[in-house]
Structure formats: C-alpha cells, structure tokens
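JOB MANIFEST
job_type = single_chain_structure
chain_count = 1
residues = 598
[input]
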Amino acid sequence: MPPAPTGPSSSGPSPLARRTMLGAMAAAAAAPGLLALSSPAQAAPDAAGALPGGGDLGPNVIVFDPSTPGIQARLDQVFARQESAQFGTGRYALLFKPGTYHGLNAQLGFYTSIAGLGLSPDDTTINGDVTVDAGWFSGNATQNFWRSAENLALNPVNGTNRWAVAQAAPFRRMHVRGGLNLAPNGYGWASGGYIADSKIDGTVGPYSQQQWYTRDSSVGGWTNAVWNMVFSGVQGAPAQSFPNPPYTTLDTTPVSREKPFLYLDGNNYRVFLPEKRTNARGTTWGNGTPRGTSLPLTQFYVARPGVTAATLNAALEQGLHLLLTPGIYHLDQPVQVRRANTVVLGLGYATLIPDNGVTAVRVADVDGVRLAGFLIDAGPVNSPTLLEVGPAGASADHSANPTTVQDVFIRIGGAGAGRATTSMVINSRHTIVDHTWIWRADHGTGVGWETNRADYGIRVNGDDVLATGLFVEHFNKYDVQWYGQRGRTIFFQNEKAYDAPNQAAIQNGSVKGYAAYKVGDSVTTHEGWGLGSYCYYNVDPTIVQHHGFAAPNRPGVRFHDLLVVSLGGNGQYERVINDTGSPTSGTSTVPSTVVSYP
C-alpha cells in the first residue's frame, strides 16, 4: 500500500480550497441530461377528482434485470453525461432487480443514484464495481457531490471497490465482499463522507479523506485517518483515540431509523420503512429480512417534473405519500406535509426549487414523517426558510415515532444565484437529522458574499433533536444554531465562508466571527462528539475567527473531540471552543484540538 497521507501540505492548495480554484471547470462542463426531463403526462384525476397512486417511474429511472442486454453500455452512457455535470440538469436513478450481474463497472457521476431492488443488499449482487473517482477533476475528489449507492452486494473485480466522494454522497445498505477505498486514484484530495447500515468484509481505507462518519455498520478493518473519523454503532471500528489518531468511537448510536427504500415484491414496487432502533449497533439486515413495515406504490403519488406544488399538496391531502422521480421541480408554494407518517422520498436527486421566495417544504408537528433523498436548491428571490420541520413553538412528544430527515441536501448558489435567510429549521421535538449537507456554494455560478447571501445554515429550536452526520458550510453568519434542550450531534463538518471580504464583514458584536456551531445561552443540556470547523478566508487571509464553537459554560453542555483547522494559513482561529483551545498558526494546516469540554 502507498504511505497514508497525514494531511494537506503547506506547499500546495488546501484540499477543499481547490474547489474554488477549479470550480469554473465544473460549471463549464455541465451538460444537459441524457434523457429529457420532460415525461409523458401524468394520469389525470378520476371522475371524483382523486389523484391516482402508483404508475410508471418515468424515463429517468432506468431499471435493469440480469437478462437486460447492453447494461454496461447504458451505464457508460449515463456516466458520460453526468461525470462532470456538477450544476447540470440531468437526474438519474439506476435500479437493479434482484439477481446476479456479471462484469459491470458502474461509474457514478453527478445526480446519479444506483440501488438494488431487493429487501436485502444480498438479493442483488454485482460481480464488479460501483465506482466514484476524480479523473474529471485532475484527481481531486473534493467536488464529488450528489450521488449515492444503496442496497447492493458487490464482489469487486480487484478485491477493493473505490468510492472517492465528498459531501452529499451516501453509501447505505451496501455489502462489499472485499475492501473499500475512499480515496481517488493517485490519493489526491478528498473530503467526505458517510456510510450507514453497510457491511464491508475487508478493510476500509480512507487515505486522503479529511473526515468521515460511519454509522450502524460492520467493517473488517479501518486504516488511516487525517483529521476527523467518527464511528457510532460500528462493529470492527477502531478504538477511541482522538486526537492521535483522530478516531471518535461510540459503541452504539442512541437512536436511528434507516432511510426508506424502494423494492420489488414480485412484480410490484413497494417502499420499505425500517423501524426505529435505540442503542443500535451493526446493520439492520445482517440476520435476514430487516424489521419494519412497507407500503405499496399505489399509496404514493408518483410525481414527475413539471407537476405543480398545488397538485403535490392535493395528493398529500388526499392521503397519498410522495415519490419524486428524478428531475427538477419548481414550487410556487410550499409542499405542506400535515399527516402523521407521511413519506416524501426522492429518486435520483429530485430537486425542488422554491420560486418567489417561498419555503420549499413545511412539515406539521406530527409523528413519524420521513423526508429522504432529495435536494432543495434556493431560488433567486430570498426565502426566509427552505425546509421547516414543525411550526414555531412545536412541543408534541415524538419520542416513540420521530420525524427523520435523511439525505435531504440544501444548496444556495452554484447552479445560479440563490438566496435564503435560514436553510433548515427544526422545531419538532425528537427529530432525527441523519446525514445532510447544507451548503452555501463557494464555486459555480451565482456566487458572492451578497450574491448568494445565506446567513444561517440550520437552526434547531426543538428539544431532544439528534443529528447524525451533520455537514454545514460557508454561511454568512452562524452555520449551526442550537436552541433546543437535550440536543445531540454525532459528527459535524464545517467550513466557514471563504468569501468574507474583510474582518468587519464577519464581526459578531465584540466577537471576531460567528461560530460554526452555536449553542444558545439558555440551553442547559447538550452534547456533541467529533466536531470540526475549518477556515479558508482566501479573499482576506488576515481575518481572525475567535473560535469554531460557542456554548454556555455549564456542566450539562458537553463536547468531545473538537478541532479547528486553518487551511494553509488563510485566516486563523484564536480558540477552539469559547476561550478554550490553542490558536491555529502559520500555514501548516495542523488542527488545534480539544478532547473534552468543559
């Protein structure tokens, strides 16, 4: 094996900063999708005005079975369109019916999801690979966003599958009968990532990955770490050792409920709804059929791009769930989820764009809503919020049946000028936010300190909220604000906004800069594990950020394994949390850490 990188070199560009330097290349390469996003008209309401459930999944859901001819050529065709289409309009879901497939290499580009259609990953075996690499970006994997692999078993051709991703690229319910390499070919920069409910029989090698979170899984081994590797409920995880090596290991995950997924029951599609687990460890499927319930596709309104928000809301009011097929949806009013246990499931990174400053999705203060697998892209007119879970003042107890927000990603700018004051607001108690990337764009089009203005990433007002895999970057003020009691975060990755023009632009009263993660002064109980904040103030490298984390100094507010990093000396942190922790200095890109606070 090559020597394991120990972190960025002071002689070259910082890992994530190369996004900015090379971002124009991605924008220039964006291409229209392989298949038209328009599709045949959806079924009309019946004579009584009711919308139909079920139906065809549309042209951008491509379904294979083992007898399908030309599978590799079809995969290559999609990849050719999507490899560098970072801000393009193509959206694809590649679905494999149960069975065994031979000699495939499914390379995944932007907005491409691949998944098996069995109840267990082992129902659908690919003798081959599901690959993400960074050849399109000169070996730099820090922009390999918005793609996913789910519910497949892989027998990698050379014994190890390559999954070199950055943010918003989940690897769920996968069985790799071999090793998993998380670095690009050549071991270039990488900034990921997330694994859940997966079994890797061999060793996971993150190599150049700066950070990673693995939840409720099983690994045969783990080698190397750069800055922040976090594990909860992972059999075979390395022992707790932060900061050297920087492993944060929790034996179990306090509460988890896996993402809903589409599967085939005979010839009929259903959506499986995994049950909630407490103190979870290992996969949900290792001993056979996973535990949970399922819904027939006939109970879903199968939405196509071009459908109106009014129609989506009519379907919800009628009692249907929503399945968003791949494509781009413009909303002139919020999608209103008012009924308990509603499922809103996206395929192939279905993208919601709120027009005229509306909120994209609002959820009532009800039990058991499941939001999963879609992207919200802010529109050019400022939205006060983009996603709201529960109204202001929500107080109902949802501990027995929480709402989950999983692989729901938010973007402000990049594909065009977008604006939003606060991206995600969580008001409902006991909500689980399981893997999100909330991103104010630092590259692409429509990017600038005021052009894609977005002051706040996520605000948590509800009590007893749990975040597992929280990625929030580049907001003009606070990236995370947490005002609810008894909140918990397991893994946090952050970069402060690159493009602050000067010190005055980020001044927070008497404090230099807004913390990446702010716990409200009235909070008496809060806990976080494995939290990191990086700065790269490349417009004005003299900017000083007082700290990455701010919280009331009281015994019930506790943090474990914190770090701040100055990328190449472009800006510096004076402290890690409050007034605790050593300052960063120079251009060496060495983390300053705090193992326990207070």
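[summary]
The two ends are 40 Å apart (CA to CA).
The helical segments are 17-29, 71-82, 309-317, 503-506.
exit_status = 0
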